[in-house]
Write a structure and sequence with these properties.
By secondary structure, this protein is α/β, with parallel strands linked by helices. About 20% of the residues lie in helices and about 30% in strands.
């Protein structure tokens, strides 16, 4: 058990420790292709057929045999027509050509397709105005995908770019990793349900609402246990129920210095939980570990801190548990800042920013405004994190900074 000490743990170290402990879910299920959006492939998917499944014309024109062109520029009579879905059938007389349309199967014996722009119709046939090369304008069977070839690897997310590919191969259903079950709750007597009138000293339970929205975007099944008051019996019951019904338990609040000791005592009793002070801002207090059955993440109580730690730590953890082996953060970029940024050396800072192009067409970033850990509007205004190194101090306008664009979890 790692003690709750005054030392600060680097974000990269915390994430490495988490990911080193967890493995993807082993359970899989078969789902219909039209229900597979957002799911993660459980195994490699191979093609059941060649693509194209038959040799076909790459453009409108004329199917020819090279021997029939040996007569020089003598016109070739048209012996028939071939269309997509209605191929040429019958005998193909020597010394003739076949009118063919894009996508139509090439008649047996075809050695080239001459595009119609290089053909001149005459009374006794078609004369070709450019030299013809064997194989030109023919799409060969299996040229795109060969039967048995891997088309998608295990561990990739299915969406609009991949599902139509499977549909084109006639794949009707896919084997995917089952959805991750996540239990969530917030702790604190000061919290009030959204839509209810606030009493003296109360605030709305923003964190659980935000976490739920992000979990929905990540394709998780959610068990929402609501607000748990500062009562040791109620809190223990919540942890035990969540542990028995979920793969991952996420709580908000109760992991900061000065919080009620029984929160930590309960977690010590039912699991192996690490309480960390992270060297990031916002989001210093964070807890991670294993309950008796489920993994556990304890988020800070401040709304922005909760969102940042979820984004930077819980999101990649969920990706790994879900078997999404190709998941990664958006690539960071170096841009100039258009506004001065307040910063005290000591912690890696994730300020919320707005990146856009200036009048010269160059990317620049500016802060969304006040960066307090209670100012959640900074996410609705921003489209990126401004990532300021731990050792860095105040940043003047015009200096180079690193940005990390929001991915789909926070982007619109």
């Amino acid at each position: 058990m790692e003690a709750f000490t005054s030392g600060l743990l680097a974000l990269e170290q915390a994430l490495q420790r988490m990911l080193a402990l967890v493995s993807p879910l082993a359970q899989t299920e078969i789902v219909a292709l039209d229900q597979a959006a957002g799911r993660i492939t459980a195994s490699d998917i191979t093609s059941p057929l060649d693509v194209p499944s038959f040799a076909n014309a790459a453009m409108d024109g004329y199917a020819v045999r090279m021997a029939d062109l040996a007569q020089g520029d003598t016109p070739l009579p048209v012996a028939g027509k071939a269309f997509a879905g209605n191929p040429f059938v019958g005998d193909w007389p020597a010394g003739s050509c076949i009118r063919i349309m894009t996508g139509a199967p090439v008649p047996p014996g075809t050695e080239a397709v001459v595009m119609q722009e290089y053909a001149k119709a005459e009374a006794n046939g078609v004369r070709f105005t450019q030299p013809v090369k064997a194989g030109q304008n023919i799409r060969l069977a299996g040229e795109d995908i060969q039967r048995g070839a891997r088309v998608l690897p295990a561990g990739c997310a299915l969406g609009p770019a991949r599902l139509p590919l499977l549909a084109s191969l006639g794949v009707a259903d896919v084997t995917v990793i089952r959805r991750l079950r996540v239990a969530i709750f917030s702790t604190g007597d000061e919290l009030q349900h959204i839509g209810q009138p606030l009493q003296a000293g109360q605030i709305y339970d923003t964190n659980r609402f935000a976490v739920r929205l992000m979990l929905e975007k990540l394709g998780c099944d959610i068990l929402d246990l609501g607000i748990i008051r500062d009562d040791p019996v109620a809190l223990r019951d919540a942890f035990q129920r969540a542990d028995s019904e979920a793969d991952l338990v996420i709580s908000s609040g109760g992991v900061s210095v000065g919080e009620a000791d029984y929160t930590k005592q309960i977690l010590d009793d039912i699991g192996d939980i690490h309480f960390w002070k992270l060297a990031i801002k916002p989001g210093k207090p964070f807890a991670f570990g294993k309950l008796r059955q489920a993994w556990f993440c304890g988020l800070p109580g401040n709304p922005v801190s909760a969102a940042v730690t979820f984004y930077q730590l819980v999101q990649p953890l969920i990706a790994q548990l879900s078997g999404h082996s190709q998941w990664h953060f958006p690539a960071r970029q170096r841009v100039k800042t258009a506004s001065a940024l307040k910063k005290t050396p000591g912690r890696l800072d994730f300020q919320r920013g707005i990146v856009s192009r200036n009048d010269d067409g160059e990317l620049e970033v500016r802060a969304t405004g006040h960066q307090g850990s209670h100012i959640f509007s900074s996410f609705s205004l921003g489209n990126c994190f401004i990532v300021l190194e731990a050792e860095r101090g105040p940043v003047a306008a015009g200096e180079w900074v690193e940005i990390e664009p929001f991915n789909a979890l926070l982007g619109e």
